[in-house]
Design brief:
72% helix; mainly alpha
């Protein structure tokens, strides 16, 4: 199974590289609405994922161990909105998202190390401040 995961990870990185998802100018032009090719790639992934989820739900598919796959909607709250805005800002500034950092490193783009360090630092700081943010970033029950 680990070999299969490695294969799909390498394939995913190759595809990210081929479609231009690791090029700063390509990403910047997407955000500036000058080139919508990358938005089309992302949209294709969203559509494929939505179709896959519907197939799983309607066919009552099971995991390879025979367990039922349960897909439940996520809670909606302001923490998601703020997190999404921070994610988008970071993506626009660095030209990278968590999915492309390793691909950029594989391409030899050492600037991705700074993005990776910022991502790790941000996650660490969120963990430290989570007790104070918990009421704000979690949904009200």
């Amino acid at each position: 199974m680990n070999i299969l995961n490695l294969f799909f990870g390498i394939l995913f990185g190759f595809i990210l590289s081929r479609v231009g998802a690791t090029q700063y100018d390509f990403i910047a032009n997407m955000f500036l609405l000058k080139n919508l090719h990358l938005m089309g790639v992302i949209g294709s992934g969203i559509i494929a994922g939505a179709i896959g989820i519907q197939i799983i739900k309607r066919a009552h598919l099971k995991t390879i161990t025979g367990e039922e796959i349960k897909i439940t909607p996520k809670d909606r709250h302001w923490g998601n909105v703020i997190g999404g805005l921070i994610f988008g800002l970071g993506w626009g500034v660095t030209g990278s998202c968590p999915g492309t950092i390793l691909t950029q490193l594989g391409e030899g783009k050492l600037a991705a190390l700074f993005t990776l360090a910022g991502m790790i630092l941000g996650t660490y700081l969120f963990g430290i401040f989570y007790p104070k943010l918990e009421n704000f970033v979690t949904p009200k029950k």
